[in-house]
Design a protein that fits this description.
Layout (H helix, E strand, L loop, with lengths): L2 E2 L2 E2 H26 L1 H11 L9 H29 L3 H23 L3 H21 L1
Length: about 140
């Protein structure tokens, strides 16, 4: 297989998927932290007619923690991937990202926001692809 800067294509796909995952989840988690009140108001409104309504005060910190974990594991995983070709932390970042997307998907489905749930499917497929590349 041809190489780019001494690395094969699969290495670069691993790097770029890890960069994408880090950006996506670090930004999303930081938005939830820095705009907590706005996000909580959105969650309360979004889930008001669902069985999750009484749990929204717990749902936001949980999804924020999952997204933060996914983003920062991916960011650290990227550094380790580039410096040492160490993949485990990046894989854990992608796994945390899958868990985050599945959690968001479940919430959207329970809230009967089917369009919102459908918008998560490309992220889920992308993350499955990323994990496959690491296998």
């Amino acid at each position: 297989m041809d190489t780019i800067l001494g690395y094969d294509l699969f290495f670069w796909i691993k790097v770029f998927t890890t960069v994408f995952t880090a950006i996506l989840f670090v930004q999303s988690s930081l938005d939830k932290i820095f705009h907590y009140k706005d996000n909580l108001a959105y969650f309360e409104s979004h889930f008001k007619a669902s069985p999750l309504a009484p749990l929204t005060f717990l749902l936001l910190p949980v999804i924020t923690l999952l997204e933060s974990l996914a983003g920062w594991l991916s960011a650290v995983g990227l550094i380790l991937l580039l410096l040492e070709a160490e993949e485990r932390v990046a894989i854990w970042g992608h796994l945390a990202a899958v868990l985050s997307i599945i959690s968001l998907f479940l919430g959207q489905r329970i809230a009967k926001d089917y369009a919102g749930a459908a918008s998560l499917v490309p992220y889920f497929l992308y993350l499955l692809f990323a994990l496959y590349i690491f296998s």
